[in-house]
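Open question from group meeting: does this chain pack into something compact, or does most of it stay loose? Before anyone orders reagents, we agreed to write out a predicted structure and look at it together. Recording both the input and the output here so the notebook holds the full record.
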Amino acid sequence: MFIRRLPKFEYHAPASLPEALDLLALYGADAKLLAGGTDLLLAMKKRTKTPAHVINLKSIPGLSGISGDAKGLKIGALTTMADIMRSALVKETYTPLWDAVSVMGSPQVRTLATLGGNLVSAVPSADTAPPLIVLSAQAHLTGPSGERTCPVEALFSAPSTCSLAPTDILTHITIPFPQGKGAYLKLMRRAALDLALVGVAAYFCLDANKVCTHAKIALGAVAPTPIRATASEAIIEGKVLNAALAAEAGSASGKECFPITDLRSSLEYRCSMVEVLTERALLEALKRSN
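Structure tokens returned:
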């Protein structure tokens, strides 16, 4: 039986963030960061990535864990999908994110895969991106020039291309305490353990008169990067959301995406299902608001 081995590389296990940054500065583009390894190790076996140096971040304290208060939520970049799924706080309050991690991969993959890895891999179908976008999440980065933050959507610059500099490390994600409700829905060819053909996250607040305010809709797997469906958001903002309005917003979102046709699905089918999932996600969020 043929066994595909990893290419040769030098392994590093820094004990602190400054040590990891020094290694990145030293080796530059020849180095890759290891978090969960579910993407990197597979790419190395396929020889699509052949780093000369692999820097394991798992020994660095403070890069994993979930904490929350009245202001919001903090999730370390090395926090696994399994840990996020087990969090009662995420499930009850940051529901779109819990929706996403609960339909990601197998239990074995969720035990290894990290939130930071899912974002930094920057694949258009990254399940955590749409819910984090609608929840106004911020990415916290550390590099040679210090710490900085950016919206999660700014991490995606092109398919499988992250906007982080080679010497930057994503340390954690913060999410402001949500004032409204949301939902994330994913279309897969199989019932589970599959990449998204379409992913839709919806979020909005309702005022005392049940009027929809601060609406956000984000789409995954239907453009080179996750995108906002701003025309659909405008349709529901300032109005009382109902089934007819949700259908109208869904119809608009199908015109805002620009997916590709590939072996898994056609462009036309993906656009059609964006309409369906947008409508359903809005109605699910409305049900959660009542």
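Observations to bring back to the group:
The domain at 10-56 is CATH 3.30.43.10 (Uridine Diphospho-n-acetylenolpyruvylglucosamine Reductase; domain 2).
The chain has three domains: 10-56, 68-176, 181-289.
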